Amino acid sequence: xxxxxxxxxxxxxxxxxxxxxxxxxxxxxxxxxxxxxxxxxxxxxxxxxxxxxxxxxxxxxxxxxxxxxxxxxxxxxxxxxxxxxxxxxxxxxxxxxxxxxxxxxxxxxxxxxxxxxxxxxxxxxxxxxxxxxxxxxxxxxxxxxxxxxxxxxxxxxxxxxxxxxxxxxxxxxxxxxxxxxxxxxxxxxxxxxxxxxxxxxxxxxxxxxxxxxxxxxxxxxxxxxxxxxxxxxx
Length: 234
Fold this sequence. Notes:
234 residues, 4-stranded parallel beta sheet, 26% helix, elongated, disordered C terminus
């Protein structure tokens, strides 16, 4: 197992969460059931691909997004909610090449679509944080449809996700999302966290530039990062 932890207050203060988080991390890492990459914070064990910092000051800073907690730790006892260690059959492998040219664009009202033209020149992949369940708006200030067409035509990887933290995207709900996904065969993040999407793309593009391989690797569940894999067949 790999365990990541931290604290909201430094460990040398009289009142701090650092000591508790560190002890809980050691306790979980030494447990026979522990596996994968996880965050241990405020008595909660969160799958690394599902963790997101939701509060800047409170001790319960991290939450698990669109996925249950792996376990909780109370009074030096670990209570597991999930135990799927027997499902892991592949040996651990490490990759040392990352493609850092992954861009992120959060759509806002009246945003000029030409910003995508700039990103096309500097990024190998672009993640679009759209509104609601996902879709591309139409504005007088610019044509997102044309900009996305140019991105795809030049071989850039485009992923659609949502600005909403919980419940994920579903571009098939409204015509504004359904049509553009079908036309350009865009990748969709579904219930993945934004952090997981960014990191996964950097990892994938560090290994391949083939569109089919990128698609296959993106939709392969890794460390519980995606539940709705069946949705890729919509």
